[in-house]
């Protein structure tokens, strides 16, 4: 079938004649017919097992799609490619989820600072170049179950870079930007249950939203997370928001529950403890609109990174017309607050032993499997990392689920970085045309992720300058969720941020701030201890200050994983490639992507061991009386899960060993231990090596894993 290859240009001309811009060049149009963002949950038919992929309400869209790639935006195919009659047999295919550049279409590009057209096109927001601004068009025919007749059918796309336009059976269903959050569209008017249906998508490599996505990472395009259709009853629970607070001096739990209901019916909620016991329930008949419920739980198990206790909240809604649906949500009771210039979790001034984690896989790029996420959690636990900043965008919802389950504190960042525009008068923080986008991206981040107990801080974005757009975003986020602090690095000391969260703040400046009574905000560096090359040599000096000054509570290392991707050279050799290894005319920041604690395949880099040592929670010293003192730096858990194993070295040779199985050391407590290592000759070098090992396996680490070490000199 003959079709035009210049429809983008024709569309731009037609819209210009009407005084309009196409949506990909209009920062005031970031969504068309996109459904409001909701919290991450799935509604099951009553009685179904809670496995989304096995639900009768779920239809997977992942797999091979027909795919048409054009290198330049003005070659965008005309809209007849979205019709069912169009012949796509000559097209190639694309794996979904999958990034174009890792599947044979275009070239990977790595940049730290600057937009992907750097050096080839002058920044001119919201305009992006047509040249090399590729467009990918997807087509998939799929049979929708006949039993979905009479239900609402919703299309879910987990992540699309840089934008997404959706057609169903030739009809345009919607459009959206913000590449790191799910986009959902009500496709009920266009879907024919029981028949083959054509779903077509179109993605631009760059759009006006790309000006807010100048993160330090590989620049890819495509669909990165899970994609599916799902069916819902016409009358249903649209959204659920929960907050598990603590009362009575952090002893009891208080659940604040809010549901948005379409139609009316009976709403029942049941709260089940981590041990499987029903501890609270409530019912509302003739529930409609917004329903709020508060429930108290005596002596609630509390969520923290040390003891991540999760309850199951089950909502069942039986509409007056239609079938019942059940929605399970994992939630936790914990309280986050700022008091006396400290960030408290459950009343304790936790130390944040953090890292920034880009969502990147050496083979999949932005496509990261749950197995890889679990591997990241394991490496973090091995390294004594207890906190993560999502840099610099929201992550796959499964990452927050895993942080909830295994215990990682999270600073959840919105998908905003406009570093390439600088921090001066050109900053998009001051650009009113981008005001709406700043608010939308922050609103969607909170709306999607607010139910996760692991998220303890919202971040408005990264390196985007400072101005009214961020000030208004701060006010909006605080209005949406008063239970968490909000931070933004460029707000500095005096702007709208609850936490002073600088980057690479020097020792002297850190000490001045932390020791000054005039400093009223916690100091937690959003980036520090740059982990590139032979690094972390001065890491202990930071932590000497952190452990000395109460309001200096830690930071987030830049960054967790080397971002190189696996690449086969023309000679057939496998390498981990970085910027400049692909297309010589692309801008590049070379190997600056490789500044992680672990390699792309998640093996410890040498400097990871220094982080592991400094971040450890157990500290051992020699008292003047010759006893061994053990300090438990944990805030919630005693040391009953570890044993001490010791070795006496005499002139470098092991001469005696032993172990202590019961360490009765409470959180933030100290205990003196006598070790019978026998007589020591002052003429020899006597050293005591101690290692603390897990007595038994945890959900992440195997029994016997060493979680802390120390070497003590026993002779002068």
Question: What class would the helix/strand composition place it in?
Answer: mainly beta
Query: Which strand order does the major sheet show?
Result: 1-12-11-14-8-4-5
**How large, in whole angstroms, is the Cα Rg?**
27 Å
Chain oligomer state: single chain
Number of strands: 40
Which percent band covers the strand fraction?
25-35%
Any guess at the CATH architecture of the largest domain? Alpha-Beta Barrel
Summarize the topology.
Layout: H1 7-17, E1 31-32, E2 44-45, E3 58-60, E4 63-70, E5 92-96, E6 98-99, E7 109-111, E8 135-143, E9 152-157, E10 160-161, E11 163-168, E12 171-177, E13 183-186, E14 196-204, E15 217-219, E16 222-223, E17 227-232, E18 236-247, E19 252-272, E20 278-297, E21 311-319, E22 325-331, E23 336-339, E24 342-345, E25 352-357, H2 370-382, E26 387-390, H3 397-406, E27 409-413, H4 435-449, E28 455-459, H5 468-480, E29 486-487, H6 507-515, E30 523-528, H7 539-546, E31 552-557, E32 565-568, E33 574-577, H8 608-615, E34 618-622, E35 628-632, E36 642-650, E37 653-660, E38 670-673, E39 686-694, E40 706-713
Parallel strand pairs: 25-26, 25-31, 26-27, 27-28, 28-29, 30-31
Antiparallel strand pairs: 1-12, 2-22, 3-17, 4-5, 4-8, 6-16, 7-15, 8-14, 9-13, 9-17, 10-16, 11-12, 11-14, 18-19, 19-20, 19-21, 21-22, 23-24, 32-33, 34-35, 35-38, 36-37, 36-39, 39-40
């Amino acid at each position: 079938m003959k079709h035009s290859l210049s429809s983008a240009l024709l569309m731009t001309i037609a819209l210009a004649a009407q005084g309009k811009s196409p949506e990909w060049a209009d920062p005031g149009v970031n969504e068309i017919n996109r459904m409001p963002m909701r919290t991450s949950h799935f509604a099951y038919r009553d009685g179904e097992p809670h496995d989304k992929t096995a639900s009768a309400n779920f239809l997977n869209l992942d797999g091979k799609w027909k795919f048409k790639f054009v290198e330049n935006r003005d070659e965008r195919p005309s809209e007849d490619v979205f019709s069912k009659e169009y012949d796509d047999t000559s097209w190639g295919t694309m794996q979904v989820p999958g990034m174009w550049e890792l599947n044979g279409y275009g070239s990977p590009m790595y940049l730290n600072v600057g937009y992907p057209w750097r050096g080839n096109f002058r920044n001119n927001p919201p305009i992006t170049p047509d040249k090399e601004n590729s467009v990918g068009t997807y087509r998939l025919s799929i049979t929708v179950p006949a039993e979905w007749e009479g239900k609402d059918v919703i299309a879910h796309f987990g992540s699309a870079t840089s934008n997404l336009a959706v057609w169903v059976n030739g009809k345009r269903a919607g459009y959206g930007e913000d590449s790191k959050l799910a986009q959902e569209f009500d496709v009920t008017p266009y879907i024919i249950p029981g028949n083959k249906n054509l779903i077509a998508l179109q993605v631009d490599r760059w759009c006006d939203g790309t000006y807010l996505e100048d993160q330090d990472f590989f620049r890819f395009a495509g669909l990165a997370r899970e994609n599916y259709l799902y069916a819902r009853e016409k009358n249903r629970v649209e959204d659920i928001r929960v907050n598990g607070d603590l009362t009575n001096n952090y002893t009891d739990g208080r659940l604040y529950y809010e549901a948005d209901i379409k139609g009316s019916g009976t709403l029942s909620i049941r709260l089940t403890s981590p041990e499987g016991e029903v501890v609270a329930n409530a019912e509302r008949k003739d529930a409609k609109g917004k329903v709020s419920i508060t429930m108290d739980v005596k002596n609630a198990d509390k969520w923290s990174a040390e003891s991540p206790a999760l309850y199951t909240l089950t909502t069942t809604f039986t509409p007056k017309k239609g079938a019942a649906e059940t929605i399970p949500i994992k939630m936790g009771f914990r309280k986050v607050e700022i008091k006396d210039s400290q960030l408290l979790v459950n009343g304790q001034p936790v130390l944040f032993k953090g890292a920034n984690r880009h969502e990147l896989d050496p083979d999949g790029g932005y496509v990261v499997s749950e197995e890889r996420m679990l591997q990241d959690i394991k490496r973090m636990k091995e390294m004594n990392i207890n906190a993560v900043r999502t840099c610099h965008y929201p992550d796959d919802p499964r990452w927050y689920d895993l942080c909830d389950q295994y215990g990682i504190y999270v600073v959840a960042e919105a998908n905003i970085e406009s570093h390439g525009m600088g921090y001066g008068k050109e900053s998009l923080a001051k650009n009113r045309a981008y005001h709406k986008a700043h608010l939308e991206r922050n609103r969607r981040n909170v709306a999607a992720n607010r139910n996760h107990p692991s998220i303890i801080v919202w971040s408005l974005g990264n390196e985007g300058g400072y101005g009214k757009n961020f000030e208004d975003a701060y006010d909006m986020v605080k209005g949406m969720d008063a239970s968490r602090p909000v931070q933004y690095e460029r707000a500095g000391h005096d702007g709208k941020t609850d936490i002073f969260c600088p980057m690479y703040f020097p020792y002297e400046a850190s000490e001045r701030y932390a020791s000054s009574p005039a400093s009223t905000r916690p100091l937690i560096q959003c980036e520090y201890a740059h982990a590139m090359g032979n690094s972390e040599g001065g890491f202990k000096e930071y932590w000497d200050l952190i452990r000395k000054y109460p309001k200096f509570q830690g930071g987030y290392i830049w960054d967790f994983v080397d971002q190189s991707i696996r690449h086969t050279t023309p000679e057939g050799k496998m390498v981990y490639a970085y910027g400049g290894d692909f297309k010589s005319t692309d801008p590049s920041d070379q190997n600056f992507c490789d500044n992680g604690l672990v390699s792309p395949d998640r093996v410890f880099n040498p400097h990871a061991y220094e982080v592991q040592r400094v971040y450890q929670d157990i500290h051992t010293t020699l008292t003047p009386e010759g006893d061994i003192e053990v300090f438990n730096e944990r805030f919630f858990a005693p040391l009953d899960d570890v044993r001490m194993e010791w070795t006496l070295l005499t002139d470098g040779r092991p001469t005696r060993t032993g172990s202590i199985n019961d360490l009765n050391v409470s959180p933030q407590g100290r205990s003196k231990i006598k070790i019978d290592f026998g007589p020591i000759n002052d003429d020899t070098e006597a050293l005591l090596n101690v290692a603390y090992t897990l007595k038994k396996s945890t959900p992440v680490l195997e029994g016997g894993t060493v979680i802390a070490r120390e070497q003590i000199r026993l002779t002068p």
